[in-house]
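Course assignment 3, question 2. Fill in each field.
Student: A.L.
Task: Predict the tertiary structure for the chain below.
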Amino acid sequence: MAEPETDATDISVRAAEVATDVSETNQEAERRRLVTTFTRAAVTGARAAGRGTRAVQRRAGDGTTWLADHVVAMAPRLRVRDAAALRTQFPGKSADEIAEALIEGAARAAAAAGGATGMAAALPVLPAFPVEIAAETLVLVGIELKLVAELHEVYGTPAPGKFPERMSAYVASWAHRRGVFMIEGGLIFAAGSPLARLLRRRLAFRAGRSAFSLGPMLTGAAAGALFNRRETRKLGREIQRDLRRHAIGVPREPRWHW
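Answer field:
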């Protein structure tokens, strides 16, 4: 995969912060405020740098390479709670109960992200829709990557290696919609690799769904919230199913490919 552009680090850091904060707050209004602020900043930054709607559309001509680069750069910047922190936050709860709480919290955060972007698009200002779609997609994927990582922690199956390596594995897990230990075909994001192509396809799907949140007036906000909540919950359930199966001792051959 191509090296991210010079603005990737900036955008990735902000997206990681927003995704983490949106995931961990229980205040609906605060979730929407965080996402709306990030989206507006992304649009303003693109315009200020001379990369308005047309420029972003040209970059989108590469498929979703730009988004994929930013996702890979964002992943190791997410704040992920380890098993001990999650047990402290959810005292007395079983792994399944903690997982359920994490999935529902991420689904609510994802819904707020879609709803906030839809609300922003209803403002009486011509929005740079492609920039808004990219911003929402980054936050959404950040919320879901954090969920994937914390579900692995809850079930005692974290990916091996140091934190950046583990987060790269969770990007692969997100793309495959499988526990890391069940992924076949390698965890390498090289240009043209099967994983890189799968990641771009997944991002194209999520970006397409994000476009619903830019519908007319509040219709877009409602559609964005509904789609995001459903897709994030579905992803969480699929990962949870793999992890529970692994945790209860169903024999599977480990498939680590670094």
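Instructor remarks: The first helix runs from residue 8 to 24. The mean pLDDT is 77.
Grade: pending
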